[in-house]
Design goal:
The chain is of the alpha+beta class. It has a domain of 94 residues: Ribosomal protein S6/Translation elongation factor EF1B (Alpha-Beta Plaits), CATH 3.30.70.60. It is elongated, with a radius of gyration of 32 Å. The protein has a 4-stranded antiparallel beta sheet with strand order 2-3-1-4, covered by helices on one side.
Length: 189
């Protein structure tokens, strides 16, 4: 029975680009040549700094493979990668069916959201994509002037709030100055 797996491989970046490409091809070929093997995605992250030194290496070339294969292939892949001196580290994970269903559902939700945005853009006269959560954006798209006034009030409110502490500080300074003058006047008397 074929299962879906995810494998991360960290290769030694000191070798040339051609050697890296050959190693990636070798791993892909091993997966596809096995019975039921199919590569779904190859994500090349590139050269990244390792979290800690491994065999006095500070950097590694990261590649993530998503593939379907028989479970018997995993032992073979693991053995091959352990024996390869250019492989710094590797990890093979089985992706449970539950996670696959969640990924599929997430993709469906993203697609339906994109369709909804396209419909709204087609319906509006200005072809403006409206934010579903922003009331100002919805009202502005409908041509409601009150939403613009509310947005202006919101913009002015922080400026007023900022001015108030300054005014209070000025008032306190004036009060302190008055108190000092009164104290001096009393001392003179």
């Amino acid at each position: 029975m074929t299962r879906q797996y995810e494998m991360m491989v960290i290769l030694d970046p000191a070798q040339g680009d051609e050697v890296l490409a050959k190693q990636i091809e070798k791993i892909e070929e091993m997966i596809t040549s096995s019975e039921g093997g199919e590569i779904l995605n190859t994500d090349k992250w590139g050269k990244k700094r390792l979290a800690y030194e491994i065999d006095s290496k500070q950097f590694g070339y990261y590649i993530v493979f998503e593939y379907k294969a028989l479970s018997s292939l995993q032992a073979e892949l693991d053995r091959m990668l352990r024996l390869d001196s250019n492989v710094v580290r590797h990890m093979i994970l089985h992706i449970p069916e539950r996670v696959l269903k969640l990924k599929e559902r997430e993709e469906d939700l993203k697609a339906s959201l994109e369709l909804r945005r396209k419909k709204i853009a087609e319906q509006s006269d200005d072809n403006v994509v409206v934010d579903m959560l922003g009331k100002e954006a919805v009202a502005a798209a409908e041509g409601d002037d009150s939403a613009e006034a509310e947005a202006e009030k919101k913009d002015e409110a922080p400026a007023e709030a900022e001015a108030k502490p300054e005014e209070k500080a000025d008032e306190k300074a004036d009060e302190k100055a008055d108190a000092k003058e009164e104290a001096k006047a009393e001392d003179k008397d």
